[in-house]
Amino acid sequence: MPPPSDIVKVAIEWPGAFPKLMEIDQVIWNHTSKLSLFLSPQNRNDIKNGSILRLTTSPLYAWPHQWQRRTYWLLLLCFSFGDLLSFTLTAFVELMDHGIVSWDTFSVAFIKKIAGYVNKSAMDTAVLQRSLAILESMVLNSQDLYQKVAQEITIGQLIPHLQGADQDIQTYTIAVINALFLKAPEDKRQEMAHILAQKQLRSIILSVSVPSHMPSICTSPLHHWFNLSLLFPRFLLINHVNPAMDFTQIPPGMLALDNMLYFARHHQDAYIRIVLENSSREDKHECPFGRSSIELTKMLCETLKVGELPSENCHDFHPMFFTHDRSFEEFFCICIQLLNKTWKEMRATSEDFNKVMQVVRDQIMRALTQKPNSLDQLKSRLQNLSYTEILKIRQSERMNQEDFQSRPILELREKIQPEIMELIKQQRLNRLCDGTCFRKISSRRRQDKFWYCRLSPNHKVLHYGDLEESPLREVPHDLLQEKLPVADIKAVVTGKDCPHMKEKGALKQNKEVLELAFSVLYESDEYLNFIAPDKHEYCVWTDGLNALLGKEMTSDFTKSDMDTLLSMEMKLRLLDLENIQIPEAPPPIPKEPSNYDFVYDCN
């Protein structure tokens, strides 16, 4: 019976011994004890009968202590050789990044030497940069090394490096501070947070404009004991039975409660106003303060990447966070008021909660992209980003997308516009047929009389007449004694050009009345004067009368309707073309057939 194909006979030799003939299984290639056979799935099939394999000590066991000693002595020797030291440290950092050697193998003497380079007042920039990088890696990769590094390096010794002109040194210094802060125990972290929150240090960081990837170091200690039943009314939280359960999810955890307490204590007027506004609303229109605060804090943490490890690729810098001792809490206070304002503008209910949060996120992100220098600037920019403004911006962005600017889409818009305009025209004329009640304004400015005007169904006559009181429904044509044929109308004038706005007594009319006035000129310079009850009726009647005269409808109401209806019609027509590339040019027209002697047999 032939031997298995995986079994080969080879000569094995190792230091201090003669070669020995052995049978090995190619499937097994793991090392034994501290001697490792360099076999892998890629090369094991290359071993044939009669091959000679040589064993050697595994680098995993041979390198660490020897390499550490050699590196340490090399650093001692290189200290006086200028660039040689920086090159050695660079090579060291690159080799450690491969993970061949554990960071825990380094001695206290080695750490002291690296820390010594950082603590020296005058040190080569390249050496200092590499030393800071090594210390950061030590702290992040080993809790034991954190203890040793923390004994050699203090925040006070790192601050001078932030005041230098080299931005790379500043960035690496911030990275070391971040690492020490993240690895520190709770009591030590609070002590560091107090030092880092000092206004002098914030001014230093702000002046050098380093990338803002510092953690949330200014957050106050969390309140572990509180009385929710006294602080928050029943309707503000999610879990009414055990409100503490609302703060168990991390993030944001207790940070949300911290923000709510800060808002209630430091912005009492705004807090009371929000609570009173919500208590006076219908149940379905209440803005849940507790749930809003928790979700808003979570959103702010995600936006600012609070709690995440620092990123070397992040270059966002927000100067406003260095202008206040409690910047994050103040940021929350501004945003929670924005949320309540947006909730009112959207007339939201509890079912719209997620929609409101999406709009608030959009408002905050757009304001932050402008990099406000202070919290007051942020508040001012958020005030300008109302819900209506956000809708306009979103609509404009959708219309400015590449798909909506391509030639086929523009041609389709041009083709649809006349159809939409005709639809708007018919709607205006239908409203004129329904009629409107207008107030009569005399020279004595008494507004105790009414008159009614409506268009006949055939669009040829305007029927109008006086009324004793405002009607509750449409007034029939037979009750309106006066008539004005549309064919006799010469022009429609508005605003200051109206005769009743030029009269002596009417010159004192306020601007609002002036904007609602329009007149119909007919026959020998006679006028039918109108003052619309509101802007909507003004636009409807001026558009309708211009449409009767064959003129263009130019009111803001028409423009708004055109944009809305055109956008909806475009979306409906393009619905079936989603994710389909629309060609810029129309497909070529095929050539004519060589002859027309063909017929289609329907049978």
UniProtKB/TrEMBL annotation:
Pfam families, A to Z: ELMO_ARM (PF11841), ELMO_CED12 (PF04727), PH_12 (PF16457)
Membrane-spanning segments: 72-93
Domain of life: Eukaryota
Transmembrane helix in keyword set: yes
Record keywords, A-Z: Membrane, Transmembrane, Transmembrane helix
A single cellular component GO annotation: plasma membrane
InterPro entries tied to this protein: ELMO_ARM, ELMO_dom, ELMO_domain-containing, PH-like_dom_sf, PH_domain
Residues of the ELMO domain: 196-368
Any one GO BP annotation for this protein: actin filament organization
Function of the molecule: Involved in cytoskeletal rearrangements required for phagocytosis of apoptotic cells and cell motility. Acts in association with DOCK1 and CRK. Was initially proposed to be required in complex with DOCK1 to activate Rac Rho small GTPases. May enhance the guanine nucleotide exchange factor (GEF) activity of DOCK1.
Protein name per its UniProtKB record: Engulfment and cell motility 1
This protein's encoding gene: ELMO1
